[in-house]
Amino acid sequence: MPGISLTLSGTPNAGLAAQLSHELTELTARVLGKQPSQTMVIVRFVDPGLWFIDSESLECLGRNSFRLEITITDETTTLAQKRRYQRESFDLLSERIGNVHPHSSVHILDVRATAYGYGGVPQAAKLWGETR
Length: 132
Hints:
This protein is α/β, with parallel strands linked by helices. 36% of the residues lie in helices and 28% in strands.
């Protein structure tokens, strides 16, 4: 059950958000082996004047940036899968957004199966065949 939070610099753009949601869901399925029907994506936009790197705003730097965080169940992916996801998601977002600051980031958060879930059931229970 991946939960993806994508923060982008710039003004809200529903079309871009929908496109990136689709592309990240597909990438997550293809590279990490996750089910699209269980993948949640939240996209936020932050004014470049309010996003700082080394105390300078992106607005002043004349750059764009993103922060991608994906929460996955611990020990359900390999190091090779994570490395590939880091590279491919960074490349995808850099291409779509353009002029990306090199400190844009991808965070893969491994969470214990007992620590999160959906539908009121922790992932661990789902792994053990419990539904409620």
